[in-house]
Amino acid sequence: MNHNDGLIECDFGDWTGAALAELAVLPQWQEVQHSPSTFRFPNGESFMQMQARMVGALEVLRAAHPGAVVVCFSHADPIKAAMAHAMGTHLDLFQRIMISPGSVSAIGYVQGWPPAVLMVNSTSEPLSGLRAP
Hints:
This protein has about 130 residues and is of the alpha+beta class. It contains 4 helices and 2 strands. The protein has one domain (about 5-120): Phosphoglycerate mutase-like (Rossmann fold, 3-Layer(aba) Sandwich), CATH 3.40.50. Helix 3 packs across helix 4 (about 75-85). The longest helix has 18 residues, at about 45-65.
């Protein structure tokens, strides 16, 4: 198993380690919830940067393993951002995608075609059913 920095959690900057209850009362919290595409965490990363990083990492992995099934592990927000990109959904709507701990989501990539969302937030289907498209 390899570590890939492109798949890590969003850099929350000054908000790292803060309790959600403390953050939820900040005026910026509404922007995080309703317009994440315009928000950048203080001294951290924007959601747009996180999504670009995640999608870029997946593209590098896809190119390095043509025709193969590659399994990646990450946190909910980066997975939601990658799924939103694959679905063609605006980043401001990515919080509508549910990603549970330990769930499986799958994106199929075929050269010359847009990504295909094969599975989202599955907690019951075996990985043995996944095949390269």
